[in-house]
């Protein structure tokens, strides 16, 4: 069984590498010659292939932003897998520490996703990054900020940092945007099951990547284990206006994510699962305020 598992894992990795090679060229060209719809959707397609190959079953609920609405997404952070999951749902970009750019595989994926890298050791880095994020928000893009500033075990939420939430104010003061408010979007990522059973505390470190865990062994362990169930909960949006206190808004987002995380881990949230989640999000991008929740959907 162990040998067969290794062979199956290797086959999935080869298939993903082949697809990755097919996608990278067109994506780089789309970024160089105009960041249109293709540049946003190619990484999304790449992430969806990864999720399907490695049996990551995404359950989605709540109300994501409508198409063309800029939003600063404030999410909890559990694993490197979070990037692939969120990137497979919507065209978006991330904010990440500069060290990630040099990581194998994940660094490449981050660059393809137009990640905004921040050098925490450089003075003035926050202001520069806030300006870059603000421009994207004003242009109607989604930008994901893992507001804890690090990864956790997926059970407890660390305090949200408010410094980069100042990017929402940058978007409002950008003269080209003409915006009255920016949407702060709380999102909870809850890893709830493995191989069709509730995830135990013993199994959680096989998914959550935190502390001093090394990346390569964690990737290997992930690839050899069974299917993962993950719930993505889009919380109620928070309006960020010129007079909004960023620390208060950040605290509101933190409270919303904490409650959604508790509810999802306790099984109190239902939604659209697997490929249906991605399809529901695709349909929603053409409608305002559509709710992707749908109880009673079977696994795919």
From TrEMBL:
Entry's Gene Ontology molecular function annotations: 1-acylglycerol-3-phosphate O-acyltransferase activity
Assigned keywords, A-Z: Acyltransferase, Lipid biosynthesis, Lipid metabolism, Transferase
Protein name per Swiss-Prot or TrEMBL: Phospholipid/glycerol acyltransferase domain-containing protein
Pathway recorded for this protein: Lipid metabolism
Start-end of Basic and acidic residues biased regions: 279-290
Domain Phospholipid/glycerol acyltransferase: from-to ranges: 71-192
UniProt record, GO biological process: phosphatidic acid biosynthetic process
Region (Disordered): 272-300
